[in-house]
Each structure stands twice: as C-alpha cells, then as structure tokens.
Design brief:
The complex is a heterodimer of chains A (266) and B (397). Chain A has 266 residues and is of the alpha/beta class. Chain A contains six helices and 15 strands. In chain A, the strands form three sheets. Chain A has a nine-stranded mixed β-sheet, with helices on both faces. A two-stranded antiparallel ribbon of chain A has the order 2-5. In chain A, strands 3-4 form a two-stranded antiparallel ribbon. In chain B, α6 runs parallel beside α10. The chains are: A alpha/beta (266), B alpha/beta (397).
Chain lengths: 266, 397
Amino acid sequence: MHAIVCIKQVPDTTDVKVNPETGTLIREGVPSIVNPFDTYAIEEALRLREKFGGKVTVISMGPPQAKEALKEAIAMGADEAILLSDRAFAGSDTWATAYTLANAIRKIGDFDIILCGKQAIDGDTGQVGPGIARQLDIEQLTYVFKIQEIDFQAKRVRVERLLEEGREVVETRLPALLTVVKDINQPRYPTIMGIRRATRTEIPVWTAVDLPDAKPDLLGLKGSPTQVVRVFNPPPRSGQIVMIEGESPQEQAAKLADLLLKEKVI
Amino acid sequence: MALLIIDTEACIGCAACVAACPFGALRMENDKAVVDDKCTDCGACLEVCPVEALSLPERGKGAEDISAYQGVWVWVEQFRGEACGISWEMMGQGRRIADTLGTTLTACVLGHKVEGIAQQAIYYGADRVFLVDDPSLGVYRTAPYAKQLTHLVRQYKPEIFLLGASARGRDLAGAVATEVHTGLTADCTGLDIDPETKLLRQTRPAFGGNIMATIICPNYRPQMATVRHRVFEMPEPDSSRQGQIVRVPPVMTEDQIAAKVVDFIVEEGEVNLADAKIIVSGGRGVRGPEGFKPLRELAEVLGGAVGSSRAAVDAGWIPYAHQVGQTGRTVRPDLYIACGISGAIQHLAGMGTSKVIVAINKDPEAPIFKVANYGIVGDLFQVVPALTEELRKRLRK
C-alpha cells in the first residue's frame, strides 16, 4: 500500500490579528503550523499503513521553511517527504497548485490512495484536492468522515461523506483521492523517536527542473487564472449590543422575546 | 516567495503600497518601497501605486478567444428531486448579473425526474434551461455531473458560471474548473460586475474571516465561483415567466461510472444547519451531553437547528456534524442563539455574519458579547427554559 498525503503549511489563523490602524494582517510572530485538516489526512494514512503495511509519502508545495511541516509529518510517522519549492511555483492559485502537485505525484509513481485535508484554514477553498484528482484522472471522494471498508487487492473503497443533509455512503474504485473532515480520527502526537528521525531526515526539494513533464506556462503565476485585486477588512457588525437586564430569567426572557418578534427573525 | 517587482526609479516613496499590503510585507527604506518574504504575490498593492512602480510577472494569457464566451449560468443543485434553496438564491444573483451585462441566464438542471425543477428554474429567472434527465444522474456523483457540465461548458461557452458552495457544489466546481482550465473562487459572499472591464468581481472571506479578498479571472473563461448559503436574498418566483427548456442527453452511461452511492444516513430529528433560519448553539457552558436538552427544546419551539462550538464536540457531548466554526460549518441564519459559548475567533468565523446574534453566558467578559446584538448575562439553564416557555406562549406552540 502506498499512500500519498498532500499537506500545506499555514499561519495559525487563531493567532492572526488585524492591525486596527492599517487594516493589515499582523503576521510577525504568528506561528506556522501544519494545516489542521491535513493532520487528519496524515493520521488516516498512518492507520492504513499500520493495518495493511506499505509506505506513507507526504508532499507539500511552499517556501523552503515548509520543510518544517513535512518534518512534523515524519515525526508523526510518515516514511518519506518531498517539498516542491521554486520561484517558478510562486503566486500559484488553486489551479496551478493542483497542477504542480499532480505532476509531482506522477513522478513519485505508483500509489493506491491520496489523502488531503478538506481545505486549508488560510485560503478555505477546498479546491486543490478535487483539482489533483482531475489532473490525475482518478476518483475523488470529498468530505470523508469515515473509511468504512478498503481493499487494496480488489481496489475498492467505501466511505461515509459528510454532506449538509446527512452522511452519504459511497463506494468506488482505487486509486482515489480522499479529502477528510475533522471527525475521521484523532491525530497522534509525534513520538520522541519520530522527532529524532525527523531531525535527522533531509527533506528532498524538487524544483521545476525536477518536473520535466510540467509545462512552464502552467506553473506559478503564469498557470493561475485567478488574480486578487483587492484585500480589505470585513465590515464590522453594525450596532451596539443591547444587554437585557431583569429581576428574573423570566423577565429577561420576556424582554428578549419582544425584541426578537420586533426584529421579525422568529 | 515575493515575485513583486519594484521599479525604484519610478517609486516616489509615497508609502501608499505599505498601507495597502494586507500582509505587512512592504516597508519604506530610504524613501523607496521594499518587499520581504511575507509577500504572497496577491497584487493588492498594484492598484494603489500612483506611478505604476509595482508589478508582478506576466500572467497566463489563457488559451482561447474569450469574447466567444457569453451568458451567465447557474447549476441548480437538487437532493432527492427537490431543488436546494441555495440554487434559487444564485438564480437571483445570476439574473441580476445577466441583466447588468445585457445577456441571458441559463440554468443547468441534472437529475432524474426533475422536469419540475427545470420549470421552476424559469420561474426563478432562467431564460434557458439545460435539462439532463437520466437515472444515472438521480443521485449526485462527481464523475457524471462533472463530465456533463464540462461538456456543456465546452460546447456552449458561458461567460460566468455560478455554483452553490455546498459540499456537492464545491466538489463539482473544483472538478469542472480543473477540467476546463479556468479560475474558480470559493465561497463568495459578494458578486458584482466591474463597470469598466465587465469582469466578475468575486469577494470572499479568507484567513478565517479576518480579511476579505476580491478576486477576478481576466484571461480564462468561464469565470467560475461557488457562492455561500443564505448570503443573497431568495428571489420571488414568477410563474408567468417564459423560458426555453433544452433537453440534453447524458454523456456517461451507468456502466462507465465507478462510484455507487449505497446509502444515505440522516440522523433522527436533525435539521440541516446550512439551511436553518434559526440556530440554537451550545458550548462549554452546557456542561455535558444532557445540557443540550434545553437547547433542543428551544430549537424545536423555534423550528430551528441545534449547533455547537468546537469545545462541546471535542468533549464528545454532540456529534461533529453540529459544529459551527472554522473547522465545522459556516452558517448564516436569521437568528443565532449562542448559549454558554465564549466566542473564540474560530467560532465567530463560522457564525459572525448571522443576521441577529443572541448571547447567553455567565461571563460578562466573554468575547461573544462583542459580536452579539442582544446579550443576557446569566445561567443558561435558567434563561433558556424561561425563553422556551415564553416563546411557546407567544408563538402558540
């Protein structure tokens, strides 16, 4: 069994603050973390390896410091990691990112399953997973909540996907790309042994030269159809809070009911 | 990796770019702009520079003649033969955009026995409907839906294509945009046409709702976007509207489709959070699984859904499907009642755009009170049942 996990290093958005004067993001001192959804993808791959044997390869595209994210995956137990990093990849939107990752996956060669988080917490698009699946022309299963059954010999997988109305059980052939939601597992912590191994591991860096099949015109900014033209602060919620006082919860409840009826929201 | 090119000859040191950079990547040194590696190549600084001293390397030109692409399209999502509300919200937007551009609005209806939905799409504003009605399309599956829409896009060349940002919509849009090689903007909360360039300006939240970004797709077509639930008004259907229904045969046959949907599990008494107009949500303050009981009773009286914060899900008090926030669902109900939720930034990212927010919390310093319209400082186990009782009387339930 060979599982490939695609991860992204992201700023910890819980720590992202906006400078009230300039309206810009304050990124100084904001720690970089492995995208939380991707840690579930790594964990799921490790569980598959524990059950079926084989190998887990983790890949990421980003600046040189994204090696740290890959080292974290190694510390959790991943076997190999590759970083795609080149100025030629810079400025990639989701299309170009998926194109580059798909080319790297082709170069890695045989795989049975690709796992990704459902989306990254900085961009929140959820588009790179489906993008990779289409580039590789394999089955895609998004928002996976549980792998019910998987058979690498028969090349079949059955999963539960979390949709708005409930959980859909769907079965398809392998290889497939799965994007996973948070509830699929509880990611493990790196072990001391794992951390030692990660420290020793040299993460290979692939540049555009290492992806000879990738067309230069489709990489980075050149391969990116979308363009950001404006970034601004979200409008603040209008109005002031009205605190509802009262002698008793009943009195407060009655006042609140009046207000909600007046707002016509109930 | 900063790709930004700064023409230091042209730079007049006005520092307009420093203020415009959302990432704090620009600063002034010796009266000239300097960029560091916090730059994400977003391009936000380019338009504020009065002397065009800033530029990014050339972008892709796109492959085809983009003027051949005309008209606005909307994918009408359906579940079990019923159109999803988001689809009609998008028809309202699609109509508005088509009118602004002076072009037509087309709805794509895929499913089995969904002719009624095609007719409804006309009532909601479509001039034309592509109807693909086949048993193989009864239940949504990525491959046949994506292949069908890709085929239609290649044949009829729409200028703009909108899909709902539901699980299915995001799954489908990602596949179609990749296949046709065009830009896709996820989760838009604002759509408008640039009066000069006629490009679709797509506005969306990023970084957990900390910033908003406006995105365009100048050189590729169609300009594709997924649109968030309940951001746009539901238009009024007009049953006197006329339109054309074009039947299209399916492009895949059942034996070519690998995926089979074998079951659909709906939890008992569960209300879909995305569509809910009212959500009663509980956090750490509910203190245990039983603590959700009074919240459920209130939700029932209001005909709403029950949500929760991450803390309550992580404690195992309620399933993940109920989680609202950055790692859960994004909701935008008319009324959000937060009970015993402190209001961490990740939670606010998922519900901060609700129309009316009520916060009930013991701690008067809880951050949830900063975003709420109405607040009650008190014990939710007293306030919530009192509110349920009061509303039961008022609403006669």
